[in-house]
Amino acid sequence: MSIAVPATLTVPERVGEPQVLASKFGRSLRVQRYRHPEGWEDDYSHWHADAYPSITLPVTTDRMVVAQWEFRYGIDRPMLEVSGGNRKPGQSAEDVAREELQQETGYAPGELILLNPEVYGDPASLTFPQALFLAMDCVCVGDPKPDRGEYIQIVKFPLTEWIGRIWAGEIKDQKTIAITMLALPHLNVGIGI
């Protein structure tokens, strides 16, 4: 099922190629010029990534959510979230989900369920989608092995408490909130509104 863009919607036209202002670690800050239907032109900035990430909500056999506090340079503080990472050449979205989950948390999934292959976190300023997965029946298979520059501490929450913390506004990471909401039907949890 797909929602069609209305045929009557007028949109700006891209002018030329984006100008790269800065680039590092497979990401770049770009400026793109657009010509608006009324005839005027303006520049818009956005972040582009060469590879898009897989994000995983890990739930153990005893219905505990394996979350992580991770220092985030963009906000200069730790954020409570779930695991994720970018694809490397030749990797599938599922490969990344499994690898990053084990690397960041030390857990491996019994079952991996694709919740949505293409979710945009902020389409006004980010060009890349995220693939969202639910990792069911996760078991600890070792210690986390974060990448250089990653600072992570694992925490576990009972599933119902985790959802309650989202409803209470305690979880601030939008991808973590979205993935949890998409996972609810697979976890046999009602929305509770």
Task: Give the SSE layout.
Blueprint: E1 13-24, E2 27-35, E3 41-49, E4 53-60, E5 64-72, E6 77-81, E7 83-86, H1 93-105, E8 107-108, E9 111-120, E10 129-140, E11 152-158, H2 159-167, H3 174-183
Keywords summarizing the entry:
single chain, 193 residues, five-stranded mixed sheet, three-stranded antiparallel sheet, 17% helix, globular, hydrolase, NUDIX hydrolase, NUDIX_hydrolase-like_dom_sf
Structure description:
The protein is of the alpha+beta class and 193 residues long. The protein has two domains: 13-49, no CATH class; 53-187, Nucleoside Triphosphate Pyrophosphohydrolase (Alpha-Beta Complex). The protein has helices at residues 93-105, 159-167, 174-183, and strands at 13-24, 27-35, 41-49, 53-60, 64-72, 77-81, 83-86, 107-108, 111-120, 129-140, 152-158. Strands 4, 7, 8, 9 and 10 form a five-stranded mixed β-sheet that branches. A three-stranded antiparallel β-sheet has the order 1-2-3, with no helix packed on it. A three-stranded antiparallel β-sheet has the order 6-5-11. It is globular.
- Quickly count the helices: 3
Number of domains: 2
Distance between the termini: 26 Å
Largest sheet: 5 strands, mixed
Query: What string gives the helices and strands in order?
Result: EEEEEEEHEEEEHH
What level of helicity do the residues show?
A: 10-25%
Low-confidence stretches: none
Whole-number average pLDDT?
94
Fraction in beta strands:
over 45%
CATH architecture field of the largest domain: Alpha-Beta Complex
Radius of gyration: 19 Å
Number of strands: 11
Return the structural class. Answer: alpha+beta
CATH homologous superfamily caption of the largest domain: Nucleoside Triphosphate Pyrophosphohydrolase
Determine the CATH topology of the largest domain. Answer: Nucleoside Triphosphate Pyrophosphohydrolase
Basic shape: globular
Reading off the top of the CATH hierarchy, the class of the largest domain is best stated as Alpha Beta
